[in-house]
Amino acid sequence: MIHWEGVMPAVTTKFTSEDELDLAMFEKNIRAQVDAGVHGIILGGTLGEASTLANEEKETLIKAALEIVGHKVPVIINIAEQSTKEAIAVAQNAEKLGAKGLMVLPPMRYKATDHETVVYFKAIANSTSLPIMIYNNPVDYKIEVTLDMMEELLECDNIQAIKESTRDITNVIRLKNRFGDRLKVFTGVDTLGLESLVIGADGWVAGLVCAYPAETVAIYELVKAGKINEALDIYRWFMPLLELDISPQLVQNIKLAEVATEIGTEHVRAPRLPLQGKERERVIKVIDDAMKNRPVLPEYKNLKSEV
C-alpha cells in the first residue's frame, strides 16, 4: 500500500566517466533524499534516462534502491514502453523485484487514441496488484488523459493517483472536484509546485529535488501546515532553479545542480552530452547565484498539517 502524498523525486541515474552505473553516487543521492524527508522514490523516468538503460541496468537500480531505502519510503517504477506486452512485462518484473508502485506513461512513439490509451493503461493495471499513478503530460507526450478517460480508468482499483503535468493548474481543481479522494493528484511541473499544493494537490513529483531535497520537502510541509508565507520565501529563491526543469536539457541542467550540492555528477549517457558554451555558462550562473543565497530552512519536519 502507498500513501499517495508528499514529495516524490524522479531521481536521476548516476553514471561514471566510463558510462557505467555509479552506484556509490546513486546511494549518496538516495540517502540525501530520504534524510530530507521525501515520501517516495521514482526510478526510471525521463530524468532517470530510462530510454538509454539496458534491462539489466534497470534491475540493478531497482534492487539497489530497495536495499538503500528499506521500508522507509516506497520505491516506484516508471513504465514508458512502446508496446502493451513490454509494459506488462516491466510491471510484473517490478512487482517481483519488490517495488511498491508504478508510474505509467501513455504508449511511447505511437499517438494512441483515447480508447487505445485507456485500454493500454487498464491492461497494465489488470496485470499487477501494484498501485499505479497515471502520468498525464500532453505537452511532452502528445496524449492527454482527460477527465472522462480518468473516469474509465478508475474502474481499476489499483489506479489511484495522477501526475498532473498539463501545465493547466486549474486541472488540479477539476480532478479533485470530480473524483475527490478516490484519485490522489500530484503536480509534475516544478514551476507550479507551490501553487498546485496550495489549491489542493496531494503531492509533488519533482525534478530539482534531486539536487535540493530539503528545500523541496520544506515547501511541501510548510504549505500543508498552512505556513504559506514561509513556503513562499523558499519558493521565490527556488524559482530560477525550478525553471531548469522545463527544458529539453533538464537532465543535464539538474545533474549540474547535483554537482553543486555534492550529491551527483554531470555524467550523462549519449546521445545526451554535457552542456556546452553559453548555455552551460547560463545554467551554471543560475546555480551559483542560488548557492550564494541558499536559504536557512525553518524546522519543517513534524509540522502539524492543517489540511
TrEMBL record:
The keyword Ribosomal protein does not apply. It is an enzyme of class 4 (lyase). It comes from the Bacteria. One of its GO terms (molecular function) is 4-hydroxy-tetrahydrodipicolinate synthase activity. The lineage of its organism: Bacteria, Pseudomonadati, Bacteroidota, Flavobacteriia, Flavobacteriales. Keywords: Lyase. SUPFAM superfamilies: Aldolase. Its EC number is 4.1.3.3, 4.2.1.41, 4.3.3.7. InterPro entries: Aldolase_TIM (IPR013785), DapA-like (IPR002220). Belongs to the DapA family. The keyword Mitochondrion does not apply. Gene3D superfamilies: Aldolase class I. This is Dihydrodipicolinate synthase family protein. Pfam families: DHDPS. PANTHER family: N-ACETYLNEURAMINATE LYASE.
